[in-house]
Amino acid sequence: MALVEINFDGVIGPSHNYAGLSPGNIASASNAGAVSQPRAAALQGLEKMRANLRLGLAQGFFMPLDRPNLWWLDSLGTDMVRAESHIQAAAFSASAMWAANAATVSPAPDCRGGLCHLTPANLVTMPHRSHE
Hints:
132 residues; alpha+beta; two-stranded parallel sheet; two-stranded antiparallel sheet; 4 strands; 30% helix; globular
């Protein structure tokens, strides 16, 4: 069986923002509060995926998740009206667009048993990623 490498991208949704939610992340901190352009960012991401397809590469994608995440807020015992501002921002987080941060892929040839393994990232330490 031939191995196929697949590139996955998260499509940027309308809640894309620069809230600076990732402490210790230089890019997050330096862009905190900047004006975002979700539509332009989504179109840029789609063009990147189309370019991959034109090159004959396999391309997968993850659709944006519903935001704000009202289920997550409810699980915390709050809602958009009562939540603190950093929790409100986390409920709008578009972090799912960072598909590369979701897991580490270990290709089948590198694994005992010849099977591909996915090691999910530990997202529970960052509130804005904990509900992904």
